[in-house]
Amino acid sequence: MNRIQEKLVRRLFHMVKEKYPDIQFLNVENSPEDPADLILNVLVNCDEDTEIEIKEYAASLANDILMDYDYLIFFLTVPKEYEHEYRIEPRRFNINEAA
Q: Residue 49 maps to which CATH number?
């Protein structure tokens, strides 16, 4: 992940978190289909309707990033009950670090 991608991942996360403050960062990983693409895994603890709203809002922002910067970032919501299946990697990527 290059510096621009880091900045864009942080921006995407924080814009969604501003509207949905209960989301939590899990990790960022490379897409298995194309390592140049990123997957931002986010923990959600909400009902299904709110999760759909979060996904739609994040997808709109991610599309703007794709159009403006040509970087593809998938925003994957992980329900709280599946948290144990994802690695939390604060050492590898700090979502709150200044870009």
A: 3.30.300
